[in-house]
Amino acid sequence: MNIIETKIKGLLILEPRVFGDERGWFMESFNQKNFEQALVERGLEVPHFVQDNHSYSQKGVLRGLHYQLNPYAQGKLVRVVQGRAWDVAVDIRQESPTFGQWVGVELTGENHKQFWIPAGFAHGFIALEDNTQFLYKTTNYYHKESEGAIIWNDPRIGIEWPIDEMDEVLVSTKDQIASKLEDSKLF
């Protein structure tokens, strides 16, 4: 597995080894021992996963920017198994030197990349193709009373979503009325 460190400490892009031939391909999508070793080598906390989630989206569906507050904060290991998505994590740890900064990565069913997003980050993505299937491994259970959302197009954050004014963006009512970063309850 190849580990790519991003500009924000703790956010990692994982590229599993894929073995392919004329029959198709095989990859180890998760290995606890290797994942732990990669985190320990970088001085990062090792999580314990408790829940897997799976979403299905059509092109233009934008989900996020979501998070849960302590003590129900979630780390997420995410990947796309079909289709394409632009995935984003925003640092919402108020004492962090990278507070309000974001990292984005394209995840596809073909590039097999995974994105590790520890607790303390808001997370969102936009589906770039129809029939995009997105998988999440989470370190805590969903807890409705602890959930938060930051508006996806907050100018303070300035995420460079891969869309233009001709693209139709489909956002849930809940995400349309999400708070700006400065008005959100954070870490």
Automatic annotation (TrEMBL):
Q: Which Pfam families match?
A: dTDP_sugar_isom
What chemistry does it catalyse, as a reaction equation?
Answer: dTDP-4-dehydro-6-deoxy-alpha-D-glucose = dTDP-4-dehydro-beta-L-rhamnose
* Alphabetized UniProt keyword annotations: Isomerase
Which InterPro entries does the annotation name? RmlC-like (IPR000888), RmlC-like_jellyroll (IPR014710), RmlC_Cupin_sf (IPR011051)
**Enzyme Commission number(s):** 5.1.3.13
Tell me one GO molecular function of this protein: dTDP-4-dehydrorhamnose 3,5-epimerase activity
Q: What does the UniProt record say this protein does?
A: Catalyzes the epimerization of the C3' and C5'positions of dTDP-6-deoxy-D-xylo-4-hexulose, forming dTDP-6-deoxy-L-lyxo-4-hexulose.
Homology family: Belongs to the dTDP-4-dehydrorhamnose 3,5-epimerase family.
**Oligomer status and interactors:** Homodimer.
What is the protein's name according to its record? dTDP-4-dehydrorhamnose 3,5-epimerase
Species source reads: Acinetobacter corruptisaponis
Q: What gene does this protein come from?
A: rfbC
